[in-house]
Amino acid sequence: MKNSSLTPVGALHPILFFAGVYLVALIFSVFICSALFYSCNGTASEAIGEEASQPAIGLLPVPENTVATR
């Protein structure tokens, strides 16, 4: 009669599970940290994919002779 039907891999199940969770968290943290690093250290034109020589759209000079009225 068998006393135990557990395999050695079954005994390692909690260790293998937490090792898998650790690897998934490590991979996600690398992607998140690299995205934050490049967003903080890049220029505005690099962040939106434009050339640095192109003028910004929507930033038109305001005429000096305008008067704000109510």
Could you give the topology of this structure?
Blueprint: H1 8-11, H2 13-41, H3 44-48
Q: What does the model show?
A:
The chain has a domain of 29 residues. 54% of the residues lie in helices and 0% in strands. The mean pLDDT is 77. The protein is mostly helical and 70 residues long.
Integer-rounded radius of gyration: 29 Å
Number of H- or I-type helical stretches: 3
Shape: rod-shaped
- Biggest pleated-sheet summary: none
Low-confidence stretches: none
Order of helices and strands: HHH
Q: What percentage of the residues does DSSP assign to strands (E)?
A: under 5%
Considering DSSP H and I runs of 4 or more, what fraction of the residues is helical? 40-55%
What's the multimeric state? Answer: single chain
- In total, the number of strands is 0
- Secondary-structure-based class equals mainly alpha
Instruction: Give the averaged pLDDT, no decimals.
Output: 77
